[in-house]
Design goal:
141 residues; alpha+beta; 4-stranded mixed sheet; 3 helices; 6 strands
Length: 141
Amino acid sequence: SETATHAGVLDFASAEGEVGLPPKTMLSLVRGDADLAARLESRELLVRCRRVRLPAPLESTCSLRPVAEGFHAGGADYAKVDLGDVLTRELGRGRHCCLTVGDWLAVRHDGRTVRLVVAALAPEAALRVLSTDLSADRPSG
């Protein structure tokens, strides 16, 4: 099955004659599958790229879902986290130009890396997130 994600031109940096995948793009493509990551790294699998123009609404919303224990370090029942602040810091570093439903993000929180999945986006399933007012929450359930 095919997995799709989006990356902006600002996300890419590589040696002459090569196209290197940004960390968020690679993480979003492999989604925790170590075998798939190894096959991509060994060039057994290829990534197909094409140019698209994503919408950039003035306001958008994003729902994030933690992978594994997420922010609940050591199995704690409760974690007080402002997802909007976490996402603002992550996007504010200029590391991500766009988001797609299903993308995986690796963010730093309390000295450790937490992986989050983009569970929902509005008003579209893929958005350019530069210069937009993006609010974040965690999905209920």
